[in-house]
Hints:
The chain has a 6-stranded antiparallel sheet with strand order 5-4-3-8-7-6, with helices on both faces. It has a two-stranded antiparallel ribbon with strand order 1-2. It is α+β, with helices and mostly antiparallel strands. A hairpin with a 2-residue loop joins strand 1 (143-146) and strand 2. It is elongated and about 105 Å long. It folds into 2 domains: 4-146; 163-368, Beta-Lactamase (2-Layer Sandwich). It has helices at residues 4-30, 37-56, 65-95, 102-126, 128-139, 155-187, 189-205, 256-263, 284-287, 293-302, 339-353, 356-368; strands at residues 143-146, 149-152, 217-223, 230-233, 250-252, 271-274, 306-313, 320-328. Helices cover 57% and strands 11% of the residues.
Amino acid sequence: MCDRRAILFGIGALVALILALGEAYIQLRLSTYPLSVASVAINLFLAWAALGLYFSFVEGSSKALGKNLQRVVEVLMRLLSWAVLLLALPVLVALTAVAAPDWTIRLLQAAAWPAVVALAALVVFRTPGGAQLIRSVFAQIQRVSVAGVEVDLSETAAKQVNADFQSTFQEYRKQINSEYDRQVRIMGIEEKLASAVQKAMKTTYGDDLTKHPPGYRCTLHVPDALFADHLYQLVEYYPYQGPDIKRGRTLSKRYGMIGRTWRFKDTEPPYQQEGNVFEGQKNVFVDKWAMTPGEAEYAAKQGYTALVSVLLKEEKSNVAVGILYFDSKMANAFGRDTKPDDFAMAALHQAKECELTTSIAEIGRSMLKVGPSIPGL
């Protein structure tokens, strides 16, 4: 592990580097390259320091003599191939100081230090002890100042930034939701939804309420003004389902039947329906409706098995503005054969007749001026 040996070897390598640079400067000033004991000593000392630095970073217990000896042999064998190259560069610089031309010496001296730097980088980044040293060093760096701008990199600052971001995001989400609620009240969306659904039920199933889909519920989903790839639940479920608030939640445009309806918004028919999603369709949530395994498990626990999802498009522009969604826990609650298709088309027609589709389109245009519609989240 990295200990005092590493520090000593590192200091030795630094001293060797300073001495060698000083000697090179003097030689350049004198325009001579004499063979000296100092040159050889400095280069050998530098090589020893580099090898010792590597050895100090190799993991192992200092008390296990046998293992340490084996470790020394392994390290020496591993380093043999490139240690020769490391030693060759400074030795060649020293031995050719007299006989070789000036350009050869300059080339060798220029190449020696990059090789040493590369070795030091290999030692630090490719050994467990070196990686630990790097982590410990950077852990101490908590503030960076560039061009007068100071950035706090501490763990405390990171937590504070995350908390501030979450707080800002939640406040923005709250403002967006409040504006949606205001638009819903102004446009009378809940009343128009109830009227459209009741008329579609009577058209398809008659006036006898006992023949209407048992336990059904419905709601509206529209493109979210905050996140471009999400759908926003505009109102609570109708008929009233209790105090559990669902209005204001967002779901991915890939999620479940509403996601499939939205993805196929340019195809016919303008709706999706299933009579019993649990019958012989074990992986329908993942394979067909693009849910994650966690989302599929949650959806299965909810137990809604009969589904109808109707795409609402503005008549003039033919642009999709929302989804009218129905479900029930009763299998085939919306009928068999063509009955669910008839109901879907009746719901689509009544949404237009009751001006529900037009009102949703107007809300969408208003919300585009309020929300940023952030992509890719």
